[in-house]
Amino acid sequence: MLFSGKGSIGLDIGSSYIKTVKLKESKGGYELELFDIHPLPPELVVDGSIIDSLRLTDSIKEMIKKAGIKSKEAVISISGHSSVIIKRISLPEMSEEELSESIKFEAEQYVPFDIDDVNLDFQIIGPKEEAGQMDVILVAVKKEIINEYTSVVKEAGLTPIIVDIDSFALENMYGINYEIEAEKNVALLNIGASTINVSILKGGISVFTRDSSLGSNIHAEALQREFNIPYETAERLKRGESVENVAEEDAHAVIESASEEILGEIVRSFDYYRSATLQEDISEVILSGGCALLKNFASMIAEKAGVETRVVEPFRNIRIPKRFDTVYIEEMAPIMAVAVGLALRKQGDR
Angle at CA 181, nearest 5°, toward 179 and 187? Predict the structure, then answer.
């Protein structure tokens, strides 16, 4: 879709698609300025790591040309259980400036990598009930991964102004679209092709995050094995399209069976959160990512985890001009949640 204009774009580079959103502030809210989804060949990005940087660069260039993107600045994000560490830690109360100076020392006991091989950041959440202590979100990301992503984006002709984390982008998206309730625990669950991001918010503030290297590729692989079909055909079946010689109910049975591993991982994450918080319960799950497009997947989570589950509405409070295909946007919205969160970021904010 062709729209000129300055300002940054939210660029979510997944395993199956590149998703792009651009927003502009208008009348106390936000208005959609650009929306684009560009399919990626398989195996370019796996579990948050770039496997084929040349082909990924070409895909981003193709997306920029096809979508008519004039903006040069991009906000990108990364995830992956093997390269991103997010910890909520307790530290003695100090100023942000003091923590900036000591964060490397504080982080060493929580980061399982050489501290010189990671980029560190933090956010002070606030004081704990315990006098003299404060809660801090610590983030460590391997420099190698950041360099991979920024290099590819630069090679494609864009300038990465912020590198965010998928889970935090989801929190940004949630913050403008949903009402924050002080004591309510909400699980934001983003399930892509090869990664699960779990982020639990209490009163809109992150209290738990976890990434897993599972995703909807499991469904495609199961369909390929069962029906002896190529990857592209399996992806069509996942989307609910008709495929010759494969009955819809047979395909759904395979998808449901393959979902057990993902559902088990979700339940384990929720159980771990409950055990770490003395059995605090989860009020609801907001589901995003490719799995949210699968028929009845939200219902499967609700049944397995015992928590009400809704599919995300990332454009709920964003005005969509009439020039857009609103039916298509509504259909594909669940995979755009991270891109919306990235599009909300501005240089210099935290």
Answer: 85
Question: 302 burial class (0-12, 13-18, 19+ CB within 10 angstroms)?
Answer: middle
Is the pLDDT at 38 greater than 50, yes or no? Answer: yes
Q: Give the pTM.
A: 0.92
Report the Cα–Cα distance between both ends of the chain, in Å, rounded.
30
Domains of the chain: 9-83+139-219+252-343 (3.30.420.40), 84-138 (3.30.1490.300)
pLDDT band per the 50, 70, 90 thresholds, residue 350: low
Is the pLDDT reported for residue 305 higher than 70? yes
Give DSSP secondary structure letters for 100-122.
HHHHHHHHTTT-SS-GGGEEEEE
Stated as kind and residue range, the H or E segment containing 161 is strand 159-165
pLDDT in tens, 114-128: 999 999 999 888 787
Q: What is the amino acid identity at position 211?
A: D
Q: Which residues contact 105 (CB under 8 A, 6 or more apart)?
A: none
Q: To 10 degrees, the CA torsion angle through 138, 139, 143, 146? A: -160
- Distance in angstroms (rounded) separating the CA atoms of residues 350 and 96: 12
Residue in the block written with tokens 């009955």: 247
